[in-house]
Amino acid sequence: MLTVLDAFPAKLLELEATELYQVLDGPTLIHLKGQQEPPLFISVLLHGNENTGWLAVQTVLRQYRDRSLPRSVSLLIGNVAAARDRKRHLDEQPDYNRIWSGGGSPEQQMAQQVIALMRSRGVFASIDIHNNTGFNPHYGCVTRLDRRFLYLAQLFAPIVVYFTSPKSVQASAFADLCPSVTLECGQPGQVAGTDHVMSYLETCLRLQNFGELSLDRLHIFHTVAIVKVPKDASFSFGSENTDICFDPHLDRLNFRELAIGTKFARTKSNPEPGDRLWLEAWDLEDRNVANRFFNFQNGEIRTKVPVMPSMLTLRTDIIRQDCLCYFMERFAYQEPV
Q1: How confident is the model over 227-279, as pLDDT tens digits?
Q2: What would the 3-class secondary structure string for the chain be?
């Protein structure tokens, strides 16, 4: 399933993400020789509708068309088939950022092959590039509270999210090999997002080591729950004719610290805990702890504790495929003495 190349097909420099299928048969790992080793690993298009990473990589590689890269690069171009259709993943496919913890499917075996190849080469750092579908700032995500990981994230933005679930993401798998970071670059198609990632990649290509943290400027948050809509509940943004009705501008709550009692949604009825209309909130131990975060009163869903949401989206397909949002809390990080 995985194609491995030791040279970059020149035609790719001119193709949009939706056109990559014309040259690539599927997931492709491309090793590019640079002035320094070990290589920087970059993954793009694990979600086919998130093209900022590809546009940024494409721009950087154009600049090095006739000269060597400052550091070797191993570039993984992920879900080419989904990119063709501008989808996160096709209906018959798994999520390509949920396949990295092992298993027997072709996609999971492909991910293990990538991990094995990069382990054999050694790897300097790993950068996985994504977009959001809702209104979010740019931020970096890490799966370990390690100074090197945080430094990679700090180079991108002062907001850093520390998460440990789901464990099947690329950043978690590569954390066993090297410092790794996931970049969240706003919505696809924004020039500012592409320019930001391009500048970041240029910086990382020239890194000699991992420098000092600016803790006074860092805002670190810890993901504590994943919020989902029950599969058998209908929902909408603004319509009164669904089981759950969210505000049409719900994604404006991203990265805002919500006070107790903040209105989150309305319901057609006043369900009891455990009812199918009760929003799910799954903690790090995969327990549904919705009653910790939500109150139901008079047909309204309100927050029960102070929380900060991230990745709230208005896209119903993304909510069904993944989640409504994540809940976070501020995290006080102190470097080991």
Answers
A1: 999 998 899 998 778 889 999 999 999 999 999 999 999 987 655 555 555 79
A2: CCEEECCCCHHHHHCCHHHHHHCCCCCEEEEECECCCCCEEEEECCCCCCCHHHHHHHHHHHHCCCCCECCCEEEEECCHHHHHCCCCCCCCCCCCCCCCCCCCCHHHHHHHHHHHHHHHHCCCEEEEEECCCCCCCCEEEECCCCHHHHHHHHCCCCEEEECCCCCCCHHHHHCCCCCEEEEECCCCCCHHHHHHHHHHHHHHHCCCCCCCCCCCCCEEEEEEEEEECCCCCCEEECCCCCCEEECCCHHHHCCCCECCCCEEEEECCCCCCCCCCCCEEECCCCCECHHHHEEEECCEEEECCCEEEECCCCCHHHHHHCCCEEEEEECCCCCCC
